[in-house]
């Protein structure tokens, strides 16, 4: 297994086998541009790919110079997986501790000073301009847990659930990058069952632990994507917190689905982890007893075993990890979601995002939302925190921070997503 | 009432009181740019606003020259209503038969030849780049009619319906401008109630007659729009056909709402009609017995009385107008929809589109969808056509064209939308 001449960061999330893409700016140059994460550094791909040293020896990387100068990764995402693989190979070649091209970066003092920016000095931006955001409901245990809460165990799953990846269109304008804050939303809620609605700040604020899939190559209007070609349309993956106001959602969602209960904000992690990085972590999907339609039958495993966690932090306390689960708890893979989404010809564009839906395991401390962990607000979740600030919670309080993390690890190989962090602020005065 | 020195077109939709905005290209210049419709001509706003004659005498129009050179109206939409009003005043001033500035355009042979393009020579484009598309369900009789079909007259409307404008997020990537074709989508359907699902081209293809509202000035994340300020955020209106596959929709939509039953394509008319043009046609909204929450209470009438019609045309026959209704059949105005949409802080961006939902009157020939007109596919709709091609229909057949039209008319004043036209093609082979 190759190692880089750049030391790993403390967490070890960003090894030379990972190389996730993001968009950043810094004080020296406030123009957002594309970068790749390695250890505790962001490698400025605009500076690197346009350098004379790269122009001389690494044609794939150099050919993307104009794309990496953009303030979003959409152009690079659209370039397709062959380009992504070639650029990854070029990057690994110059970052390898045994590089055969030390003159490009390792021994190139000027370029290193310019292109290798300490992560503490950068401000991360949204990695892609998201045209359309679709949220699926592919987390089997989540769908089951929520179904039990609403309809009892007999009718927990709707009849269509195991036949197709249920999904709906979400709001792209309110997606923000990790680090942003959201205000507790006002909305119409029923203060008690059967009461008249009131207009109030949400009283049931929740997070949702999801994976986001970023589209690379598009499909044209009217042209479905074959499930076994769908991975060629994926640029990579991020962590996604689909903040939810459960009381707003409960009153509004019949018959057309969630709306204001979700569209006030979603948070994604800044680093797009590619399928090539996740390759060693393919796993069996959850068993589905239903005979699948042809267009959903996959020839290969395309669910990944990514360990996902949620921690919550009071204003002053230490974070408490309240849930740990895995992305293998999906009934549907992203290629299946893409095949279904495009079956009728819907065009997916570079930078579009598909959410997995909330990912939960079977146990209480493996659940991806407070709705499930507290069984609809009836059970306490303990925050152990520190400094005497332990408390029990049912839904989020003003000032709470929610941090999602994701990581794959096996036999010394580690691929991490970093974190997806957001803080809930008090509602506005009206 | 002022008249223009440019003669009205045959329909009279595009008078000097209308002046809707669009984006066009032509053989002489295939670069899409902004224009305004007057009679049978498109006035090239890029050429006009950047001309020396305008620079000398019309500062508002001239100040938008860079915006009108864009391939979308988003920049101009974002400029805000004061700018829109000033540009409208400048345009009316030079187009008026009694213009005090004949040297700018009427007597300026060179600029007239360049900027006044016969509509037969242009290709219309999507007027705006639509970031997010939200579809509401504000057509009261439609919601009632569909509710009766699914749940009977006792429970036709859901409990939330009269308390808030129910809406959901739609798909923006598949919105096309009038004149485009869509293929009949494949999807999962239940061939009969309770049967196992199959993958098939939809057998229940329908149109939906809607108004689309295009957002101008944005609101920031976390900042709601006051209902009585909401019109300041509207750039204008288009006709919208939200094509629907009823069988796909019926199987997929519980519990998260419509998805593949809608996202294969929507068609909008090319000309954005401004609120200033519609001003004389304000009318009383439908009565709502429910006590409204404060944030939905409007100080002025903001529903318009626009006569809307649907015609269908066989491959060879003449079009048959099958339905005529009015936009006054909305329970909620667009300002109310905007106030609700942003209540929790959701940001609306310039170019975003809000659909009204299907607009139907109370009578069979006033309904905005075949689902309603045929009572769920049980009654025939007659196409009288011509040349012996009369037929009865329940849902759309391959080759059928659907044309929506919209027009306001009173005391010699006419404001038209032109048409929103689309054709259904046969499904792809799989």
TrEMBL record, chains A, B:
Residues annotated for substrate binding in this entry: 137, 151, 249, 253, 358
Cofactor: Mg(2+); Ca(2+)
Stretches assigned to the Fumarylacetoacetase-like C-terminal domain: 136-419
Recorded metabolic or biological pathway in which this protein acts: Amino-acid degradation; L-phenylalanine degradation; acetoacetate and fumarate from L-phenylalanine: step 6/6
Active-site residue list: 142 (proton acceptor)
Transmembrane segments: none
Domain of life: Eukaryota
Binding-site residues for Ca(2+), renumbered to this chain: 135, 208, 210, 242
Listed GO MF terms: fumarylacetoacetase activity; metal ion binding
UniProt domain Fumarylacetoacetase N-terminal: residue ranges: 17-127
SUPFAM superfamilies for the chain: FAH (SSF56529), Fumarylacetoacetate hydrolase, FAH, N-terminal domain (SSF63433)
Binding-site residues, Mg(2+): 242, 262, 266
Any GO BP: L-phenylalanine catabolic process
Catalytic activity field: 4-fumarylacetoacetate + H2O = acetoacetate + fumarate + H(+)
EC number(s) on file: 3.7.1.2
Alphabetically ordered keywords of this record: Calcium, Hydrolase, Magnesium, Metal-binding, Phenylalanine catabolism, Tyrosine catabolism
NCBIfam families: fum_ac_acetase
Protein family per UniProt: Belongs to the FAH family.
Protein name: Fumarylacetoacetase
Organism: Stachybotrys elegans
């Amino acid at each position: 297994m190759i190692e880089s001449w750049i030391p790993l960061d403390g967490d070890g999330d960003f090894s030379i086998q990972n190389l996730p893409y993001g968009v950043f700016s810094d004080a020296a140059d406030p123009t957002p541009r594309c970068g790749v994460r390695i250890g505790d550094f962001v490698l400025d791909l605009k500076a690197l790919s346009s350098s004379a040293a790269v122009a001389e020896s690494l044609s794939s990387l150099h050919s993307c110079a104009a794309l990496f100068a953009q303030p979003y990764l959409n152009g690079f995402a659209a370039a397709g997986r062959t380009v992504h693989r070639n650029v990854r190979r070029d990057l690994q070649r110059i970052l390898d501790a045994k590089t055969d091209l030390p003159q490009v970066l390792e021994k190139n003092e000027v370029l290193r000073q310019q292109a290798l920016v300490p992560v503490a000095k950068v401000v991360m931006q949204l990695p892609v301009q998201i045209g359309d955001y679709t949220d699926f409901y592919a987390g089997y245990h989540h769908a089951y847990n929520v179904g039990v809460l609403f309809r009892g165990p007999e009718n927990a799953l709707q009849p269509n659930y195991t036949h197709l990846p249920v999904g709906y269109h979400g709001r792209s304008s309110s997606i923000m990058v990790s680090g942003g804050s959201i205000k507790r939303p006002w909305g119409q809620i029923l203060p008690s069952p059967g009461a008249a609605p009131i207009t109030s700040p949400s009283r049931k604020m929740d997070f949702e632990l999801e994976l986001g899939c970023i589209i690379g190559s598009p499909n044209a209007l009217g042209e479905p994507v074959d499930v076994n070609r769908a991975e060629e349309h994926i640029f990579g993956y991020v962590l996604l917190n689909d903040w939810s106001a459960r009381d707003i959602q409960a009153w509004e969602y019949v018959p057309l689905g969630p709306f204001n209960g979700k569209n006030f904000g979603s948070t994604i992690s800044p680093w797009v982890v590619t399928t090539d990085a996740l390759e060693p972590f393919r796993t069996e999907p959850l068993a589905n007893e239903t005979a699948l339609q042809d267009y959903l039958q996959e020839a290969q495993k395309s669910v990944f075993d990514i360990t996902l966690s949620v921690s919550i932090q009071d204003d002053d306390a230490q974070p408490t990890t309240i849930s740990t689960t895995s992305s293998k708890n999906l009934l549907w893979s992203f290629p299946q979601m893409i095949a279904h989404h495009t079956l009728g010809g819907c065009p997916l564009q570079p930078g579009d995002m598909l959410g997995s839906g909330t990912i939960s395991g079977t146990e209480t401390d493996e659940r991806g939302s407070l709705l499930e962990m507290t069984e609809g607000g009836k059970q306490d979740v303990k925050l152990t925190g520190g400094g005497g600030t332990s408390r029990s919670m049912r839904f989020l309080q003003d000032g709470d921070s929610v941090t999602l993390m994701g990581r794959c690890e096996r036999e010394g190989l580690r691929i991490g997503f970093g974190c997806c962090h957001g803080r809930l602020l008090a509602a506005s005065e009206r």
